[in-house]
Amino acid sequence: MEEWIQVVSEVGFPIVVTLYLLHRIESKLDTLNSTIQMLPNQLNSK
């Protein structure tokens, strides 16, 4: 049981940080994707 607590404490923090960063970057990638998709329309209208 003590070994499991040690493993979770060692590995758990990096997993939480990774999930947080992936969540943050996902919204930025969605915005970037929509902006890139609108780019040809903006270029054609000028």
UniProtKB/TrEMBL annotation:
Protein name: Ribonuclease Z
